[in-house]
Amino acid sequence: MSVMRKLLFLILSTLALALLPVMAVRGDLWLSSDFLHQEVSFILETKRMLATGAPWWSWNTYLGSDFIGSYSFYTLTSPFVWINCLFPESLLEVGLAITFVLKFLCLGALSWRYLRKMGVSRQNSAFGAYLFTFSSFSIASLYYYHFYEPIMVFVLLLIALERLLRRERWAMTGVALAAFAVTFVNFYFAVGSFIAALIYVIFRAFSGEVDFNGRVALKGVGAVLVGIVMCSFLLVPVYYQMLITTRADAQSAFDTTAMLNLLERLRTVLMPKIVEGTTVFVPGGSASYSNEACIALLGLSLSLIYAWRHRDWLSVLLMALLVLYLTPLNGIFTLFTNPLYTRWAYFLTLVIVLCSVRVLDEQRDVSRGVMGYVVLASVVVLAFVVKVLINNGMHLPGVRFVALVALFYAGMAALMLWARGKMSLRWLKVAAVVCTVAQMWLFLMNLGTDSLWYKSLQTNVEKGDGVVTCRSDFRGGNSFLTYNAGLLRNHASVEGYQSVITTGVDSLYKTATRDFWAKNKLRANVHQDEFDALLSVKTIYDIDSLGNVARRDAEHFIPMGFAYDSYLSRSEFNKLMGDTAVNLPLAMLASVVIEDAQVETLRGLLKHGEAQASSGMDSVVAQRQQFVATHFKGTSRGFEAQVSLPAEKVMFFSVPYSDGFTATIDGKETPIYKANLCMMALRVPRGEHAIVLDYFPIGLKAGLWLSLLGVVLLLVLMWRDKKASEPRRFRNRS
After folding, report:
1. How far apart are CA 318 and CA 598, in angstroms?
2. Burial class (CB within 10 angstroms; exposed 0-12, middle 13-18, buried 19+) of 352
3. 8-state DSSP, 396
4. Whole-prediction pTM
5. How far, in Å, CA of 83 to CA of 100, rounded?
6. What span, in angstroms and rounded, lies between the C-alpha atoms of 505 and 657?
7. Structural contact between residues 645 and 563, judged by C-beta atoms closer than 8 angstroms
8. Cβ distance 585 to 558 under 8 Å?
9. What is the pLDDT of residues 81-119, one digit of tens each?
10. Which three-class secondary structure string do you get for 180-220?
11. Cα-flanking dihedrals φ and ψ of residue 680, to 5°?
């Protein structure tokens, strides 16, 4: 059996040993929190939207959202999600299990290829690839799911760059395609990956192992730019969506917390992962978010020995990355994201692995170096244990915590036995497999599961039919904390998650709740009935933590698409926001809020409303129920409605306003007005009319033209590579 086949078999065996016991204990492999709230629900919606053939507008995403802009970070650009989309919804768990395995296999094969290219022996390349495939960061990516693809394409990018630095055939084409893959699978990670690749090339340029000059640098930069331009069909519409997305509005800042969390960050490269988001030395902090870079069993031991023995580019790079990782310089990588995140940890991990396997290839005594590492790591872990005891009031920590500490010391013991010649390298590799399985098992078991409420949503709650995700004239709501429940049950709803909420809709919720931090609120904290009526919520599901479901109808329901006869200007409404005695949702129900610039245009159809609704909720709702759409249907391209009016009216639709929409009434284009802070309204003449609002992603056409230009440039690169690879022909001279 070849080394590659042995590696892939070992990866399969590890996954079986780690995952099957978890499934046997819990009954399934569903993870908790973000995995169900985001990953699973987003995959389901991606499957439905791709099946439409025109995946532009997602009705199930909160109150409605641009599909490409909202899902390209999570699911849309992942080939593994495409595989999941081939499975029926009832077999989604099977599809996820298959793609989990495929991801680990692909990363193992790619990292093995990179290590071989760096001159590591075949056997130790396989061992290093195994360690990289099952690092703590990789294991944590089971929880996030979509974090795994960036690790793979980054390794692919380094392979392509090595080919360029070594003047190998088709190098520029390879760099361009790798840059496209890095950008395509995850544009957030691409920022950190390209910065990491730049750092890598700089250190390689001074290694003396490659002939690097300005011409090679220009070739590399040009090829990377071609790859990025090829991805414009995605980047341009995503850019426009990012401008209005709540999760992206946090400005990147210098990471001033890293030094305070030095021990916490150091722990993440020394011992196994505890659980996502858990910090110890700084209670309430989030320094551990996506920071894990631990290598099962070996940790930093052999890489530090390599750095001590060598004064080459790789040892200096390792030290530089450790400084970046442990200090505020980590902020260099955090463009467009939270500075506390260290999502480039896969770069540090790969360098640690490369250093470690090079030490193994040297076959020299490492006992003294390993002893020093074990002492240093033990001091940090003991401090970690003491801090946990202090935080717990000196009570004994939990069983899983004790198991993780025991796993760390068991790994250190195996490392010492090998270093002192009491254990062969083969048995050290066996010990690494055992530690990996245990670490993975403990991590998965520590997450727990929220599958009870998930299964209840799948079986006990009314769901949509096929790919038409807004089947009627209403939305649903939940009283239990179930982010993106509408995505799970395939029905338009008022639940969402910050990552895919636009700032306009976010401002509406903040206004209704009078809570500036209401980014993840499912329904209004105050005046809930009025707010539900404004958003056409008809059915409410009460779901408890055990998954029990009770369905009830909203007391006040107004079908989607209703008329107003009075207005308040935006400036008038802004003044009301400071008065806590005013019922803001009721005020919006009584009089539509329109932008100041639209007052003159709509004044003839609407009378000026009162700041405080003079009548009660029942009376206001009855007024709005007088003239409503007789038919409403959402599609993946927008929505259509039919109305019958005795006179010209302003019709309000609780659909987020976007410049991507065009409206027609009986086939004739008509203006769209922003109403009630972030929704849409139309002037509709008297009589019966068919209304169609068609959505097309902003920037998609321009992006497609730029991508076409990128393809042309790629063909030019391919022509140059082909020409450079052809042997030169010389004329025979007599």
Report:
1. 60
2. buried
3. P
4. 0.90
5. 11
6. 9
7. yes
8. no
9. 999 999 988 888 888 889 999 999 999 999 999 999 999
10. HHHHHHCHHHHHHHHHHHHHHHHHHHCCCCCCCCHHHHHHH
11. -125, 150
